[in-house]
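Weekly modeling sync, notes
Attendees: S.R. (lead), two postdocs, one rotation student

Agenda item 3: backlog of single-chain predictions. S.R. asked that every request posted to the team notebook include the full sequence so nobody has to chase files. The rotation student volunteered to paste the first one in as an example of the format we agreed on. Action items at the bottom.

Example entry:
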Amino acid sequence: MSVTVRIPTPLRKLTAGADEVSIEGANVGAMIDNLEAAHPGLKERLCDDTGEIRRFVNIYVNDEDVRFMGGRNAELKDGDELSIVPAIAGGI
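Predicted structure, as returned to the notebook:
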C-alpha cells in the first residue's frame, strides 16, 4: 500500500526538505519502519524505546488519530494520507 506522509517542519531535515513522502506499508507500524529505511532517524523521533508511538507525537490517517484505530496496528489502504503532528505545549 502506498500512502502519502505529511512531514512536519521540524522533521524535514531528515527528508531532504520534503514536506510529503510516499511510503509503502500495510499498517502504521510497517509504514514507520519503511519511513525509517528511506529516511534514517525518523523512527527514533516518532517511537519510544519499546517501538510505540511517542505520546507527544500524533499521527493521523485521513484525519483520524491512529491511537483510536489500533496504534501501530492501524491498517492502511492505498492512497491514505498520514499526517505527523508533534504535540505543542505551553501556555500562560
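Discussion: group reviewed the output briefly. The first helix runs from residue 28 to 38.
Action items: rotation student to repeat for the remaining queue; S.R. to check formatting next week.
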